[in-house]
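Illustration 12: DP-EP family protein.
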Amino acid sequence: MSNPTPIFQFMVSVFTDETPPRYAIYDTSGNPATGNVTVTESSSMIMYTLKKESSDLQFVGPVISGDLDNDLTYSITEDGQTIIFVDSDSATESICMKLVTAPKSSVYTSQDPQIINKQKN
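Figure caption equivalent — predicted structure in token form:
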């Protein structure tokens, strides 16, 4: 029987009335936390969800450094409220992830240019 994938969950408040905006991270009980995680198993998931008072924002991506093997992946939920990182734990490294948010009303998305793949004959 395999072990379940480790999941680390955090809540995030963004105080945009401060310059620069301040990010506060909390554990799932609402206690202040650093958001730091020590990963010891492959495919560990680290999730950051915006708290209700910051729901006028959305995650637009992270700034990642220190990922020497480029094996940290991320996805953002369709509503932009949660960013999910998956760490393969394939190398010993310290990865820095800066969370990036933007007001929902100020995020612009282009029309959908398409890439069409065709096999050579």
